[in-house]
Amino acid sequence: MTGPGRRRATRAVVALPVTVVARGLVRLPPARLRQVLDAAAAGTRPAGYQQTLAAMEAVTAVSRTCRDPSGCLPRAVATALLCRVLGRWPTWRTGVRTAGSFAAHAWVEADGLAVGESFPPDAYQPVITVRSRPRQRDGERDAVGSR
């Protein structure tokens, strides 16, 4: 099996263990969670919208916690990690509501769009963002220098 069929099978097999890992990771303090996700995003290319949506659908299919409306943090972490299994990374974000009563939320974005979300684009102000970070070729340096 190759191509899309193989990716679907991989998502289905890996979705449950990824959600278990995600549920453990969300217990970390925010700064440590960011470090772990930043390390996971290293060496990845950006995930596309459809790939990210398929990953989200896979994790919500196997996890009641991720399916629950209040399960945004484990759902976003698990979705990003499942994309990582295939070498891609969506933009992972946490943020706070911009108007009305205080609310925090976690979500993933791909192709500039929030994936699987119904809120308007400006409803939340991002506080933590983890983007894909493709491997650099020999001799290349990022804008802040080598790490």
Automatic annotation (TrEMBL):
InterPro entries: McjB-like, McjB_C. Pfam families: Transglut_core3 (PF13471). Residues 18-128 form the Microcin J25-processing protein McjB C-terminal domain. NCBIfam families: lasso_biosyn_B2 (NF033537). This is Microcin J25-processing protein McjB C-terminal domain-containing protein. It comes from Parafrankia colletiae.
